[in-house]
Amino acid sequence: MMRLDKFLTENEIGSRSRVKESIKKGMVKVNGVICRQADYKVDETKDEVMYSEKIVKYKPYLYYMLNKPQGVVTATKDNIDKTVMDLLDVDRKRDMFPVGRLDKDTEGLLLITNDGELGHALLSPKKHVFKRYYVQCGKEISESDRIALEQGVDIGDEKNTLPAKAVITGTNELELEICEGRFHQVKRMLQAVDNNVIFLKRITFGSLVLDKDLRPGEFRELTDEEVELLRKDIG
After folding, report:
1. pLDDT tens-digit profile of 67-91?
2. Which residues on neighbouring strands pair with residue 156, listed in sequence order?
3. What is the CA radius of gyration of the chain?
4. Given phi > 0 = left and psi -120 to 50 = alpha, else beta, which region is 14?
5. Distance (Å, rounded) from C-alpha 61 to C-alpha 95?
6. 103 catalytic residue (yes or no)
7. Number of independent structural domains in the chain
8. pTM above 0.90, yes or no
9. Nearest Cα residue to 194 out of 118, 142, 121, 119
10. In this predicted model, what pLDDT tens digit does every residue of 85-108 receive, in sequence order?
């Protein structure tokens, strides 16, 4: 059971104060009857709630795509730097978290959700969910470097990196797909072939593709189709 104003706020109808005002004005119905009590308890799984004559369906899980800018840390809290959660300007952020991490100087696609099961499965080494990065390198990438990156390289860990997918897109440019999430992995992989990363941007995460209309720092909710495809990514 959930308070009516909380139900509406968490479904992004508006701020708590705006929602309370709407309830007072008779703009909200519960099971077809106008309800003017903000603290009225509704069963989010059974009751039909309408706002301004439109049915509001409760979403237990929320999914957002953020185009992470440089200079922001991938964390829920930080005492020094701005976090990706500070950029997520929504009413319902409790229990939400970024899936995986991007370095402070790395841009691009970041999934933020409160669906712990999906988030942890997408990061599981057993699932081999690929993530593609656009990489600007310090110097030219040779064909032998590309092959080495695809086959797996020694980055100083106990094991070499798993097989990857690498496509040279320019003299100093590369698109690299990896299915692991080791610390600074892309940067260390480039170092392993005597190169370095100048600029790094994640452009895909499994089937999810960074929306080209999102500028750095902007976000949007995932479509139902995008969520379903992510579920298929993990089998």
Report:
1. 999 999 999 999 999 999 999 988 7
2. none
3. 22
4. left
5. 10
6. yes
7. 3
8. no
9. 142
10. 999 988 778 789 999 999 999 999
Q: Are 75 and 66 in contact (CB under 8 A)?
A: no
Distance from the Cα of residue 206 to its chain's centroid: 11
Domain that holds residue 24: 2-56
Which CATH number fits the domain that encloses residue 195?
3.30.70.1560
CA angle 16, 97, 129 (to 5 degrees): 140
Pairing of strands 197-205, 107-113: parallel
- The residues, any chain, with a CB within 8 Å of residue 14's CB and separated by 6 or more, are 8, 22, 91
Same domain membership, residue 197 and residue 181: yes
Same domain, 201 and 212: no
pLDDT by residue for the chain (235 residues), tens digit each? 999 999 998 887 888 899 999 999 999 999 999 999 999 999 988 999 999 999 998 888 999 999 999 999 999 999 999 999 999 988 778 789 999 999 999 999 999 999 999 999 999 989 999 999 999 999 999 999 999 999 999 999 999 999 999 999 999 999 999 999 999 999 999 999 999 999 999 999 999 999 999 999 999 999 999 999 999 999 8
Q: Which of 103, 154, 157, 194 is catalytic?
A: 103
